[in-house]
Amino acid sequence: MKSMMSAAGLVAALLFSWGAQAQDRYVEPPPVLVSPDLSAPWVMQLRRTPVQAQHRNHQAGEYRNYQRARNARQRHTARRDYQASRQQAIRNAVQAQRSQAQPSQQVAYVPRVSERSWRMNDPKWLPQVVEYPSRHAPGTIVVDTGQRFLFLVLKGGKAKRYGVGVGKEGFGWTGTEKVSRKREWPDWRPPAEMIAREKEKGRILPAHMKGGPANPLGARALYLGSTLYRIHGTNAPWTIGRAVSSGCIRMRNEDVMDLYNRIPVGTKVVVI
């Protein structure tokens, strides 16, 4: 009888222990444990607490997964830091090379687009009222091809000055004309001489181009007498201040529109 009771007790103990273990298998260890010594501070658990020996394999698998995830994060961070440091080293090397370059080399390095942007935004070429003592009557237009400025003479020894592009070498001219007509968004019909000249360079010009933003004459045109010359806008505003045209006086579209509204047909134009 005693042996039977001992065996039954042993079975019950085993069942109880197995049930406790089975239940504990799915219990998440608490993230915060209180020290048995109530005077001690709370202990924050940075990782899971060790479990019973029978659960070590399961816990070890979870820890390996966590370790792999942690290493992946570390690898990602290390790779990101390496790339950032490499890029910074390249920037430092380029900066050092530029600082050691000669001034002529530094100028040559500037991209063309930056030159265009600088020229377009240089306040020197923007409209402004300046002192301009002149023998010409107010309302007269004076184009100074040497300085690349157009002056609209005002009263009181002043003038409104605009930056312009002028005729390139071999195409410059001087003289006095009058504005014979005005056109908004003019069509462009390049003369036969220009078509032939550009064809020799391998560039084919259209016989006619309708007015619009892409048209070389820009937004407005002031025709000078019976000549082929005009004061007109442009689709290349970065050329203002340069000698680039075939004799016409080109202005920024904003500027030629302003001038167009200020002067009537018959205005005297002096090109010097």
What does this structure look like?
This protein is α+β, with helices and mostly antiparallel strands and 272 residues long. It has two domains: 53-109; 124-271, L,D-transpeptidase catalytic domain-like (Beta Barrel). It is built from six helices and 13 strands. It has helices at residues 2-25, 56-100, 103-109, 112-121, 192-200, 253-262, and strands spanning 32-33, 43-44, 128-131, 141-144, 149-153, 158-163, 166-167, 175-184, 220-224, 230-232, 243-245, 249-250, 268-271. The chain has a nine-stranded mixed β-sheet, with helices on one face. A hairpin with a 5-residue loop joins strand 9 (220-224) and strand 10. It is elongated and about 85 Å long.
CATH architectural label of the largest domain: Beta Barrel
Uncertain regions: pLDDT < 50 for 5+ in a row? 18-56, 102-113
Strand order of the largest sheet: 3-6-5-4-13-8-9-10-12
The main pleated sheet reads as:
9 strands, mixed
CATH superfamily of the largest domain: L,D-transpeptidase catalytic domain-like
Give the beta-strand count: 13
Which shape, going by the Cα principal axes? elongated
CATH class of the largest domain: Mainly Beta
Give the ordered list of helices and strands: HEEHHHEEEEEEHEEEEHE
Give the N-terminus to C-terminus distance in angstroms. 136 Å
Helix amount: 25-40%
Q: What's the number of domains?
A: 2
Q: Name the beta content range.
A: 15-25%
As a whole number of angstroms, the C-alpha radius of gyration is 43 Å
What structural class do the secondary elements suggest? alpha+beta
Instruction: Output the CATH topology of the largest domain.
Output: L,D-transpeptidase catalytic domain-like
Helix count? 6
Mean of residue pLDDT values: 77
